[in-house]
Amino acid sequence: MNFYPHHISDFNNATRHLTRVERSVYRDAIELYYDTESVLTDDVDRLQRKLLCRSDEEKQALIDVLDEFFDLHDDGYFHERCDHEISKYRANISAKAKAGIASAKARKQKAVDRKHNSTRVKSSSTAVHNQEPITNNQEESREKRKSRFIPPSLDDVKAYCLERNNKIDAETFLNFYESSEWMRGKTKIKDWKSCVRTWESRESKNQDISKLSDDQLIAQAEKLGIHTEGMYRNNLISAIEAKQ
């Protein structure tokens, strides 16, 4: 999830007794929890690397925070408040996705109905001598009707992604553009397949960045002028992608 409600008063009341380092590590830990929408690994060494806990003080702060605010189970470290917010977020996304699919089907049906209603009636074979010649404006109007954009269905997107052998989630792609009413900024999209190809390029770049080690990520971020202190891996990757 890209957003979570941060209640300042609740956070301050719960962490007022912590040191600044502990508060920072705790905040990074819950943001990693929200970002991945999953429990934190019980492999503390691995978790320290993910949260960029390098000094002895930061490593000990993570251990103390996990002990106080998280519950350790077989699957890893759970956080009750985070799980509650993630459940609300998923329920909201699911409702929006269903509404988006229903809206797409309705729009597609309207497009089919318009096409059916606009079927041309065959003209009479009798010559009409006083008919005025077709003007340039009429030709332009016909061209506009021919090039009118019709949004794809979920099956259309899935089929095209399968044809191009990419790993794009068709439902995520469709929901994204339906939420913006098929607009890119202030411009109406005319070719949804070109949008799929753009997503392919972005996914390829993201995969290359995600393969970098922590040290390589930090070096890349510093070249781009990104302040890395206190950032965990996922946020660091997002910051680099935004700069490129």
Task: Return the average pLDDT rounded to an integer.
Answer: 82
Main β sheet profile:
2 strands, antiparallel
* SS strand fraction: under 5%
Spatial sequence of strands, sheet with the most strands: 1-2
Q: Percent range for helical residues? A: 55-70%
Tell me the span between the first and last alpha carbons: 22 Å
SSE pattern, N- to C-terminal? HHHHEEHHHHEEHHH
Shape: elongated
Q: What Rg do the Cα atoms give? A: 27 Å
Number of strands: 4
Indicate the structural class.
Answer: mainly alpha
Number of helices: 11
Q: List segments where confidence is low: pLDDT < 50 over at least 5 consecutive residues.
A: none
Question: Any overview of this molecule?
Answer:
The protein is mainly alpha-helical. Among the domains are: 8-84; 212-243, no CATH class. It is 64% helix and 4% strand. It has eleven helices and four strands. It has a two-stranded antiparallel sheet. The protein has a two-stranded antiparallel sheet with strand order 3-4. A hairpin with a 2-residue loop joins strand 1 and strand 2 (76-78). Helix 2 packs across helix 4 (56-69), helix 5 (80-117) crosses helix 8 (170-179) and helix 7 packs across helix 8 (170-179). The protein is elongated, with a radius of gyration of 27 Å. The mean pLDDT is 82.
